[in-house]
Amino acid sequence: MQKASLKFISKTLGISVATVSKALNDYPDVSKKTRDLVCNLAKELNYKPNSFAVNLRTKESKTIGLIIPVIVHYFFSNVIEGILKEAENEGYLVIILQSNDSYELEKKQINLLISHGVDGILISLANETANYDHLNAVLAQDKTLVMFDKIAKIVKCSKIIIDDRNAAYKATQHLIDSGCKRIAHFRGALLPQNSIDRFLGYKKALLDNNIPYDASLVYICECEDKSFEEGQKNAKQLLKDHDDVDGIFINTDLIAIGAINEFRKQGVRIPEDISIVGFSNWFMSSVTSPSLTTINQPGFEMGQKTFHQFHAEIKAIKDKNPIPPRTITLETDLVKRESTKSF
Known about the structure:
Elements: H1 6-13, H2 17-24, H3 32-44, H4 51-58, E1 63-68, H5 74-89, E2 93-98, H6 103-115, E3 120-123, H7 133-140, E4 144-148, E5 158-162, H8 164-177, E6 183-187, H9 193-208, E7 218-220, H10 227-241, E8 247-250, H11 253-265, E9 275-280, E10 293-296, H12 299-318, E11 327-330, E12 333-335
C-alpha cells in the first residue's frame, strides 16, 4: 500500500495539495463537502502529518525542556504531573532533565535543550545556582523561559511561586500559638530563594512575638536527595546543643520525618516535648507517627500554571503581541496534625 501523504490524497480526490492541507487544518475557505471528503479519506488511510514539515512551517518544535533539581521527590513529581497533563492536551512533548542541584549540570542541560530546538524551557533552579548568565542567554535567543518554585528574582521572565515567607511565618506562628517558646529551624541550603524566604518568615514570626532570634537554633540541610538523613543528623545535633527547644519549623516534610524518627529513637515525645511543623504536605506526612503538621504546597497546580503561562506566552508571540513577564503566587495553607499541640 502506498504511504498516505498530502500528495496521495490530492491525487486520489483530484484536488490540489494546498486544498488538502487547508481542509485538514479546517480553513474556512474550503467547503464543508471538500473538507469532509479529505478528512474521511485521511482517516481511512490513517494519515499522520509529517511533524518535521509542520514544525518547519510553523517554526515550532512542539517540545519543551523541563529542568528540575530532583525527580524522586514528592513535590516535584506533582509538578511534573501537572505540566505533563496540560502539555499533552496541547500536543507538546516534554523533555525532562534532572540537574541534581548542580549549577554546572544545569548549564549543560540548558545548552543541550537549546541545541535541540525546544520552544521554551521550564526550570526550578539548582541549589548551587548563583550566576544566571545561562538563563539570560535563553531569553536572548527569544526562547520562552518560565521559572517555578526555586527562582531567581533578577531574571526577567515569568515565575510561578508560593509566598514562602508568609507560609513559613504561618508555620512558626502556629508553633508560638501552641505554646512553644524556644523554636529552632532546619532550613534548606543557603542559595535558593525559597530557602531564604522560609528562613526570613521564621525569623520575622519570632521577632513579631518578642521572641529573640538565636542563630544557633538554625541548622542547614544542604542535600535534598538525602533529606531524611539530614533530618536525623540535625535532630541528633540539636539534642546535643540545646535541651530547651520545644518547637521546630523544618524546611521540608522528608527532613521533618527524618527528625521525628531520630527523636523517637532518643525517647523525645512529639508533641509533648517538641512540636514540629514541616513543609509541602508530602503523602507520608499524614501516615507517619505522629502525623505531621505541615504547610500544603500545591505542586500539581504549580505545574499546571507553569505550562499555562508558557503556552500563553508562546501563543502571544505567534500572534505578534508578546506579553510581559508576570509572577503568579499560589495560595498555601497550614494542615494541622498530631506533631503539634492543640490549642
